[in-house]
Amino acid sequence: MEIPNFAPVPRSNMTEQRLKAAAVELEATFLAEMLKAAGLDKTRQAFGGGAGEDQFASFLLQEQARQLARSGGIGLSETLFNAMMEKTHAD
Questions:
Q1: What are the start-end ranges of the H helices in 12-91?
Q2: Which of 43, 65, 78, 81 would give a disulfide with 31, using CB separation of 3.0 to 4.6 Å?
Q3: What are φ and ψ of residue 80, in 5° steps?
Q4: Nearest CA to 35 among 91, 9, 73?
Q5: What are phi and psi of 29, to 5 degrees?
Q6: Would you place residue 78 in the very low, low, confident or very high pLDDT band (cuts 50, 70, 90)?
């Protein structure tokens, strides 16, 4: 029995968008950990301090990392995206 060669399935725009979003989120998570290690998660009593500020500082740090990643970041998301695209074509 002979198996016919099929043309590769064209990548859908939706798949690319989801992979790009995942790559940016991975870079944002990495950047958040790096910012935390640099001590930027410590509150500076900017809004009066207290337990509320301490609890929400991590959310602020994560959102700052997302904005960094969305605006180009350190280029990690592009590398991750390209690797994931290669993997989707290899399967």
A1: 13-37, 51-70, 76-90
A2: 65
A3: -65, -45
A4: 73
A5: -65, -45
A6: very high
Residues 6+ apart with CB under 8 A from 28: 62, 65, 66, 68, 69, 70, 73
Look up tokens 């995942």; give the residue: 22
Query: Among all chains, which residue has been given the structure tokens 């990690």?
Result: 76
**pTM of the full structure:** 0.71
Give the count of alpha carbons within 13 A of 88, CB side only.
15
Each residue's pLDDT tens digit, 4-47: 565 555 557 788 999 999 999 999 999 999 998 988 767 666 66
pLDDT band at 70 (very low <50, low <70, confident <90, very high): very high
